[in-house]
Design a protein that fits this description.
The structure holds 2 protein chains of 2 kinds. Chain A is an alpha+beta fold. Chain A contains 18 helices and 4 strands. In chain A, strands 1-2-3-4 form a 4-stranded antiparallel sheet. The longest helix of chain A is centred in the middle third of the chain and has 37 residues. Chain A starts with 21 loop residues before the first helix and ends in an 8-residue tail after the last helix. By secondary structure, chain B is an all-alpha fold. In chain B, 79% of the residues lie in helices and 0% in strands. In chain B, α5 crosses α12. The chains are: A alpha+beta, B mainly alpha. At the A-B interface, α9, α10, α15 and α18 of A face α1, α6, α7, α8 and α12 of B.
């Protein structure tokens, strides 16, 4: 392991909610141990409540079996230690749950959304319709099954020849579960990339069951947009799209950062100087104009899938410099350690040393950085889609949905268009809090942004 | 002194090389945009009734020098920019870019710098206090507010403020000037009018920048605050705010100052979007117009280049300032 293990524990006021200071003494000797918990972990574990890896540990400790607790602590893997520390951070745990829920919502979007989120699933009778909240009772009495009212569209001399939507309060539409509606597949690859040999058309796991629906009508939990598309379904699909763009972008950026940062940090010297010059130059060009320039290069006739990949790739190609720089700085300090010399003397190749010795010493930090760079990717995607250069309307991305919000008409009359925005904010907040919790839990290095 | 001059010289050369690299990137990007300036200009003429042929395009390309190899064109572009300060003509508008951009670029830069200044004015004291605070309530509130700055997109904030002001004041607060000053020459009255409207974009841009700066300052402070020299100072009897400001804060703020240029970058990054919503008429808006609407590569290239040049310049200035204040930086660079 690395030098971080011998650092004395810091008395860090923020990260260590010292609720049971008496436990500190029992573990305070950890700095000298080889199994090596990161600094600051002791206090968090002492403060950790109950349950999980250390829950039983603490109960036993209270029973007086101090030695066992110590042993479990010292033999715990780094992952267990990080997890224990992470769990003690309540806001991070809440954020983690929110994130898991949202990812699952995105994953099962077709199952959860009763109607097709594309124009095919539009509800022509309910355009710009307000959200319909299922209820259990009204003036006609109580019902054990939730229901909504049927709506009717009318245009006559009475309504001044405009379409007017009215609620028929006598006609109830009851909520039903596991109804059949449009078909969807969980594995659906339909690439139409330039060049016919790259085309893929694959459909697996096709279903047509949906979690809920109403009999004899349609239910729109979040209302509908101007063309009658269900905003609930669109939001769920958009979460998934934005996450997918983010993931692809983060992966590309990650691989580039590992390679460039690794090479730059390991070799140092003129290679480092040259690579840093390029990195700095790329960091200097502001990303959004760069996106815009590249997006202008994107022909209009591209399909939405092609656009999707192109956007992810651009995001990835621009997102690497920060992480690359951090990896480089870390490697520059790390490469003079004895274990690297030992590996070199054993005849290990440079790429082996970088991959097998240097980068693993940095894993926790890299994971945290990935987690934190995720919301930036999602944000970039939304910003780009918002300007109209990113994903366009048939694709449901959070940015494309937000674009609708900017019309004055919408702001004043159809406030339910804002619902996807709330999901976006929740998504970004969840990511940042989880990333921050992870950083606090695992961060033996500086938490610097640069 | 000699060491310092040597440092400044090295830094200046590095800045120049970065600028050249950036100009190559920008120029390549401009070339990537489909279609050339000649085609675009002739297409524009075409809409006015005159017929054009392939020969016309060829002739126009020759006139604009587009038939020369890529690197030579880059060289002449960079040469014009560096030695004459000329960006040439805009492809679509057929106007001299220098005239087109003169005021607008300075306004944009001013707005961005003001937002940068505002964000650090708020973030530095709060970040330092938050890092040294023991109260979880304070910390969690600060964290939440600062993360909200990250999560709430700028354009959304702009929209909300616009909506609010339209409903409450009956003025949408858009634009950079009132009607009567829009085309007027710069005067004190115009400047005041400008300030009365520019605070909104500055505030919106500063909002997320503050969130980011707060996180950086806090993280840097947390690293410094546990170090031995702070303990030693505390043991000597230094306490309270002077302990914070005289010891860890001085060290923690070094990297912050060092990265000011990249913060400016991040702020400018958001400017086009805010400009789009608030219908501002400055360089960010021109950029989005040039890139997203009309594919005006000359204009877009000029804006991006000017911006990166100011970032490089800011980085250079902060490096020199840091080196003046902190001898370790000088030695770090000279090895």
């Amino acid at each position: 392991m690395t030098g971080k293990n011998v650092t004395p524990p810091r008395d860090d006021p923020d990260r260590a909610p010292v609720q049971q200071p008496e436990h500190l003494d029992a573990y305070g000797v950890h700095g000298a141990e080889g199994t090596a918990p990161a600094p600051g972990m002791t206090t968090a574990i002492a403060a950790e409540g109950g349950g999980g890896v250390f829950g039983w540990l603490r109960r036993k400790k209270q029973a007086g079996v101090d030695e066992k607790a110590k042993e479990a602590y010292f033999t715990a893997s780094q992952g267990q230690l990080i997890w224990a520390r992470f769990k003690s951070n309540r806001s991070a745990m809440i954020a983690l749950w929110a994130l898991v829920v949202m990812v699952l919502m995105g994953l099962f979007a077709p199952f959860l959304s009763p109607y097709n989120p594309t124009i095919a699933g539009r509800d022509a009778n309910y355009e710009n319709g307000a959200p319909q909240i299922p209820k259990f009772w009204d003036e006609n009495g109580f019902s054990i099954r939730p229901f909504i009212y049927a709506t009717e569209r009318e245009r006559s001399i009475k309504t001044n020849f405009r379409w007017v939507m009215t609620e028929n309060r006598d006609k109830r539409l009851y909520l039903q579960f596991f109804v059949k509606d449009w078909r969807y597949s969980f594995v659906e690859i339909d690439w139409d990339l330039p060049g016919s040999w790259l085309d893929v058309d694959l459909k697996l796991l096709t279903f047509d069951r949906h979690l809920f629906g109403v009999e004899g009508g349609k239910i729109h939990l979040f209302g509908t947009d101007a063309s009658g598309k269900d905003i609930f379904g669109r939001t769920l699909h958009a979460i998934w799209t934005s996450l997918a763009v983010g993931t692809l972008g983060v992966m590309i950026a990650f691989i580039l950062a590992l390679i460039i940062g690794g090479v730059s940090g390991y070799y140092g010297g003129w290679i480092d100087g040259l690579l840093q010059m390029i990195t700095d130059a790329i960091r200097t060009v502001p990303p959004i104009p760069l996106f815009m320039a590249l997006a202008a290069f994107m022909p209009d006739h591209w399909s939405s899938e092609t656009r999707f990949f192109f956007i992810s790739i651009i995001l990835g190609f621009i997102g690497w410099p920060t992480l690359a720089r951090r990896i480089r700085t870390h490697l520059l300090t790390e490469r003079s350690q004895e274990y690297v010399l030992a590996a070199e003397l054993c005849g290990a190749s440079s790429s082996h040393i970088i991959r097998r010795h240097l980068l693993p010493s940095f894993t926790s930090y890299i994971i945290v950085d990935l987690m934190i760079s995720f919301p930036y990717m999602v944000r970039s995607e939304t910003a780009l889609s918002f300007i109209g250069l990113g994903l366009k309307d048939p694709v449901n991305s959070l940015g494309a949905l937000m674009q609708n919000v900017s019309q004055a008409d919408v702001l004043l009359n159809y406030q339910w268009y804002f619902i996807p925005v709330l999901f976006f904010i929740a998504l970004v907040l969840a990511f940042v809090f989880v990333g921050d919790g992870l950083r606090d839990a695992s961060d033996p290095y500086s938490g610097t942004k640069k | 002194m000699a060491q310092f001059l040597q440092f400044a010289f090295t830094r200046a050369v590095m800045a120049l090389v970065t600028l050249l690299t950036v100009s190559l990137i920008v120029f390549t990007l401009m070339e990537l945009v489909p279609g050339t300036c000649a085609e675009r200009y002739l297409a524009f003429k075409n809409t006015q009734g005159s017929q054009i042929s392939i020969d016309d395009i060829k002739a126009e390309e020759k006139r604009l020098g587009l038939d020369r190899p890529f690197l030579i064109r880059w060289g002449s572009w960079v040469g014009n920019v560096f030695f004459k300060g000329e960006f040439g003509d805009s492809c679509i508008l057929r106007l001299n870019i220098n005239q087109l951009l003169a005021d607008k670029f300075w306004i944009s830069l001013g707005i961005c710098l003001a937002a940068l200044f505002l964000s650090y004015l708020i973030a530095v004291p709060i970040g330092i206090v938050s890092a040294s605070s023991n109260s979880p309530v304070t910390n969690n509130t600060l964290r939440f507010v600062s993360y909200l700055g990250l999560a709430l997109p700028n354009f959304l904030l702009a929209l909300i403020i616009m909506l609010f002001s339209t409903v409450v004041f009956g003025d949408s607060l858009t634009g950079l000037f009132s009607k009567e000053f829009r085309d007027a020459a710069w005067s004190w009255a115009k400047f005041q009018d400008f300030l009365s409207r520019a605070w909104l974009p500055i505030f919106i841009l500063g909002w997320s920048a503050t969130a980011f700066a707060l996180q950086t300052v806090r993280a840097l402070m947390l690293d410094e605050i546990g170090k031995l020299y702070v303990t030693a100072a505390a043991a000597r009897g230094v306490s309270g705010s002077s302990l914070l400001w005289r010891y860890p804060a001085r060290h923690a703020l070094g990297p912050v100052i060092n990265s000011l240029g990249f913060d400016l970058n991040r702020i400018f990054n958001e400017l086009p979007i805010v400009a789009l919503i608030l219908t501002l008429t400055e360089a960010g808006a021109l950029l989005i117009e040039a890139l997203a609407r009309s594919n005006d590569q000359q204009l877009a290239g000029a804006i991006i280049f000017l911006l990166t040049a100011s970032i490089v310049a800011l980085n250079f200035v902060t490096d020199i300032l840091l080196a003046l204040l902190d001898p370790r930086v000088r030695r770090g660079l000279m090895g």
